[in-house]
Amino acid sequence: xxxxxxxxxxxxxxxxxxxxxxxxxxxxxxxxxxxxxxxxxxxxxxxxxxxxxxxxxxxxxxxxxxxxxxxxxxxxxxxxxxxxxxxxxxxxxxxxxxxxxxxxxxxxxxxxxxxxxxxxxxxxxxxxxxxxxxxxxxxxxxxxxxxxxxxxxxxxxxxxxxxxxxxxxxxxxxxxxxxxxxxxxxxxxxxxxxxxxxxxxxxxxxxxxxxxxxxxxxxx
Length: 220
What we know:
CATH architecture: Up-down Bundle
Number of helices: 7
Mean pLDDT: 87
C-alpha cells in the first residue's frame, strides 16, 4: 500500500483537529443536559465559531491540493470527500450549539431535557464512529454507522409521540421536540460522513443524502 501524500496527511490532521473541537462542544452540551444550566450559549457559540474557521482552513488546503498536486483516482476522491466531510462536521457543531440555544430560549423547560439525553448520546456515538471510520479508511465500519440511523429516526418519532398529548406544559413539549429533531439531523450528517468514507475507499456512492420520502399511500 502506497504511503499517503503529505498534503492528505495535513488535510486529515485538520479533520482530526476539527473533530476534537467538536468533542469539547459535545461534552459541554451533555453537561448542560445532565445538570440544566442556562447561559452557556455564548461560550459554546464561540467554540462553534472556531470549528467554522477550521472548516475554512481545511477547504483552503483541499483547494490548494487540487491546484498544486492535481491528484487523481483515490487521492482525488480523498480530497473531495474531505471537503464535504468538513462541512458535515461544521453542521454537527452548529446542531450541538443549537441544543443549548434551545435550552436558553425555552428556560422553563430545562428540567425536561434529560428525556432526550439518551437520544443525543446515541447520535453522538454515530458521529464518533463516522469520524473514526473515515480516519481509518474503514468502509465496513462506516456502513455500520448508516445502519444505526433507523434507531435515531425511531427515537425521534417516539419523542414526538410521547409529547403529542403531554399535559405537563408547553415548555417540555417544545424543548424535547426541538432537541430530538436537532439530534435526528446530526445523525444524518454522521451518515453523510460515513457515505463519503465508503466512496473515498471504494469509489461507490451510497445515496444517503437524498430525502427520506414517505410511501405513496394514494394508490393503496
